[in-house]
## 1
Amino acid sequence: MLSLDRQEAYRRRYAASRPGYRTAAQLFEALLLRHLPEARRALDAGCGRAGILQDHHHESRFLVGADGDLASLTDNSRLHGRVLAGLERLPFADATFDLVGAAWVMEHLAEPQVACRELGRVLSPGGHLLILAPSAWSPVALLNRTVPGRGQAALVERVYGRKERDTFPVHYRANTRGRLAAMARAAGLEEVEFHHVGDPSYLALNDLLYRAASLMERLTDPRPLRRLKVHLVGEYRRLIP
């Protein structure tokens, strides 16, 4: 089993060998910290049990989480507001939030284009949408897509030790740069910044596989092959009429 602690150890080892490297989570957090100080109201879209805003709950801005899973939402107790709702139908007025973050959410949506329109609708003009998601073309996602139904949860629990209650079906219908850009344009958003981010730890079941995955990261650094990186981080801005 590839535990989280073991993954983190491989990430530190990889970062030490590649100066300037940042994980997708670190890039996403940097974008979040860039825009959060100016946001009066922020939404964690698909917040789950922990989410991306819980460590900022002590600050003066109003932080809201929305999730369609009641059990996960109940455990998320550090936000100022929690709403039981799917992202395809958000119970908020237009232009409610200055910042919306969606981390590890897009891959689970059966109708991501509908959800993207809703996320754009609740953003104020000039507001930002931040997305962190796996790439549909990475080897990890391609392997996951070959496993039917609940077998995905069993595979994740067996390999990564993640409990089945925290594993949800994946579709990867929005998980490419082109698809995200198209959905953003349809929702009245423009792309500001985008990153394909590698991480060899997802395939590092042992040292040999870690070295092979690290080599693959270097081979996929050229722009035409970056889509094979495991993660996507994007920033989008609501257009001002």
## 2
Amino acid sequence: MEYLLHLAIVISIYSILGLSLNLIVGYTGLVSMTQAAFYAIGAYATAIAMTSYDINFFLAILIGIIISGLCALIIGYVLSRFDGDYFTLGSLGFNIIITAILVNWRGFTGGATGIPAIPRPSLFGFDLSTNLTFFILALLAVVVIYFICKFIVRSSFGRVLKAIREDEKAIQVFGYNTHYYKLAIFAIGAMMAAVAGALYASYLSYISPATFDLNESVFILSIVVLGGLANNKGAIWGAALLILLPEALQFVGFPSAVAEELRQVIYGLAIVLFMLYRPQGLVGEYKL
């Protein structure tokens, strides 16, 4: 039971990350590689607030959201001046910068060793230390963020985002300042990623820079692409697929000497085949 709850919590955290990035990549057409950086900012801000300043989790998560949003406004302002592949390369560079800061700012972030002993949340004296109560908290966060994403997509703001994705120059002809729209959705996605970071930090009680490197950004992007671009449910399906597939492969009877390598090969092969024969993802409405 605890194992299943653990998987459910991890899927919930990555569902939030998938939903947040889907607004940027799926609906706006901006291929961003910085989501792991904002995930990290939310995790570190929450962890430092709780461990160094004894701040309650729910106030700490708010601090993480604000800091991540402010960082996104700065980074997004620079990236909004780029288009296409240049935007992607620029976002990749910022992810590397954030990771380097986490490693080298030892006095504040703990450096490569990270931050241990992060407490679980508590609300009005009720301790959310069990996996069941933490899963309920994580699930509530997924539901709230899902409906926020749904509201954004169906609003006039969301319709402009889709227009930017289809033809940015055409929408500019009608007087829309697309830089502001891209900056706004970039910041919103970053703040959502900070929620996932806060949940991750409190759940595992330990974080380090290695968790939030470039590979993590690639993994989050894979969730969105495989689940289905421009579909909020697809982000959740993608998270479940990429979390559960390697877990399921552990129960396949591979020879012990090569079990890990074979699991990785089959996992990678499954993703490649999926992209070849279902490039729009499970329930996608748009292809990169």
